[in-house]
Task: inverse folding
């Protein structure tokens, strides 16, 4: 447990040192094996375990964010809109909060912003699975088989994600 806390602190420090990210162009990331990247469990802000593998078969957007990050704060309402519009067609959005200001701040942000999709609290496993998270928000678009289709660092317009969602839902 102490190792996980230390690794999470290192990941958080790395993200803080780099900053929130600056709208960097997208880059496609291919998983190194044939397994789903959704094969992990994190706890939600209430401490309940959430196995992300339950979302295999859906198009998934994983958004790594935190409450103090302005680009994250800008993008989340757009993710709420996308989720509400496409959830019945097979879209699942999951926020992975780094919780630098604590879990209560995450819970308050979710309530204040009427976030309708599930959120979990990130830990070392996020770094183990997704590698170099150089800034936040970092958003992964995952296809129905659980493989990474695309990765974005920094704020991206709603239309960028909507175009990918439509393409992946149709496939």
Result:
């Amino acid at each position: 447990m102490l190792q996980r806390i230390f690794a999470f602190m290192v990941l958080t420090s790395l993200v803080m040192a780099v900053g929130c990210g600056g709208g960097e162009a997208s880059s496609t990331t291919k998983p190194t094996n044939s397994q789903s990247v959704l094969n992990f469990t994190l706890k939600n802000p209430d401490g309940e375990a959430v196995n992300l593998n339950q979302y295999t078969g859906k198009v998934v957007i994983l958004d790594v964010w935190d409450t103090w990050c302005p680009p994250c704060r800008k993008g989340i309402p757009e993710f709420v809109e996308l989720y509400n519009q496409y959830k019945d067609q097979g879209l699942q959005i999951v926020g992975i909060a780094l919780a630098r200001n604590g879990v209560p701040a995450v819970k308050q942000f979710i309530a204040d912003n009427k976030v309708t999709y599930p959120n979990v609290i990130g830990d070392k496993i996020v770094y183990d699975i997704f590698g170099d998270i150089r800034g936040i928000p970092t958003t992964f678009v995952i296809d129905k088989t659980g493989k990474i289709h695309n990765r974005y660092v920094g704020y991206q317009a709603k239309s960028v994600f909507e175009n990918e969602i439509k393409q992946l839902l149709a496939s």
Observations:
- DSSP finds five helices and seven strands in the chain.
